[in-house]
Amino acid sequence: MNPGLIYASITGYGQTGPYSGRGGYDVMVEGEFGLMHIPGEHDGPPIKVGVAVTDLTTGSYAANSILAALLARGQNCGQGQWLDAALSDCQTAILANIASSVLVSGQRDSGRWGTARPIIVPYRGFKTKDGNITIGGGNDKLLGSLCDRIGRPEWKEDPRFMANK
Fold first, then answer.
1. I want to staple 147 with a disulfide (CB 3.0 to 4.6 A). Which of 12, 56, 116, 155 is the partner?
2. Side-chain half-sphere of 55: how many Cα atoms within 13 Å?
3. What is the pLDDT of residues 61-76, one digit of tens each?
């Protein structure tokens, strides 16, 4: 009745398919779609992320889609759109780096690493005498800067540490 209407749906599993009638909850999708596989200690059980990240991500995707639809409506003679954001789709999208690593390497994902990352070193939390700190040398330049800051500039020339890998 209103061709300019922008209508956004948020579902657990989309409008069609075998799970379309199921209710969607953040914790269910975190478990089913692999997010719980990432946090926690290497030999520990799956852990839920501390916030409803799947809900929040889906809301952000929906909000961005609404903004894009508003822009499109303004440029396309008032034509509206129906937008559909599913928790399961958005959860899959935010795990793209894990999926691409597996697809590129052909190797099964190596599991949980606590606060560390298997491909970036150092990149984790460390216990200290008076608390915890997190250090991340996310690329070779940052690692060099880190070496300078912690008083170990010679590590930049050490063959063991010259490349992030």
1. 155
2. 11
3. 999 999 999 999 999 8
